[in-house]
C-alpha cells in the first residue's frame, strides 16, 4: 500500500479494511486472541533453565510468536497447535532475515534464503486456498473466506496479500508489546496501576469466562500505557512520501518529484509539545483526554 497508486491502492486499501472489519465482527475474535495468549504463556512452564537457577524467556521472541499466531488465525484460520502454522512461521522468519539484506541471489545468503522461504510460503498458502476451494463453502469466518470471494485478485495476488498481512502486523505489534513490558519493568507505580485495573476486571468474570469487548473498553490506563509506549518507542521511525505535484505547506514549497521523510520521533520527543518528553509517563494521556 505504500508503493502502489491510483486504483491499485484503492483496491488494496479496501481489502485491508475488509480484513479489519471481518476480523473484529467475529464473535470469537477476542476469545481467539485470549486463547493464543494463554497458549504462549503456558508454553513457558518447563522451559530449559539457565545454569539450573531461573527460567530464561526471550520475551520479544515470544511476543513475535503471539503476534504471528494471532494474524495466522484471523487470516488463514490456523491455530498455533497445527503443524502447518509452525512450518509457515519457520519460513516467515527466514523471509524476515533476508527482507532488508543485500539483494544478491547466491545460495546460502540471507537474500537467497528469503526468496526460497517466500516461495515455500506461497506454495503452502496456495495449498490452503485450493483445499478450501475443494471443500466448497467453509464458512470459517476468517479472512481467507473474504479473499476467496473476491474476483478482483489473482491467486498470486491473494497469496501476496496474505504475506503482506503477516509482514504488516508481525514486527510492529510484537515490538509494541515488548516495549510495554520493558517500560512497565522500569516503573513500579505504572505496573501496579495496570495490574490493579486488570485484576479488577478479572474479579468480575467467571473462572473460565473470556474477556469481552466491554472489558477491553474498561482498560483505560492500559490504553494510556500503550499510547505512551508508542510515543517513547517510536516503532515506526518514519514514513516516506513522494510529491506527485507541487505542494505548499505553510511557508515551504515542496516541488513535484521531491521525496519527504517525516520523522515521528521529532514530534513525539519534542519538549515543546510534551513535558518531560524523554520520560515514560502514561498519566500524561489522562490530561490529553480531558482536553479533548
TrEMBL record:
GO terms for biological process: brassinosteroid biosynthetic process; brassinosteroid homeostasis; sterol metabolic process. GO terms for molecular function: heme binding; iron ion binding; monooxygenase activity; oxidoreductase activity, acting on paired donors, with incorporation or reduction of molecular oxygen. The keyword Transmembrane helix does not apply. Keywords: Iron, Metal-binding. The keyword Iron applies. This is Cytochrome P450. The lineage of its organism: Eukaryota, Viridiplantae, Streptophyta, Embryophyta, Tracheophyta.
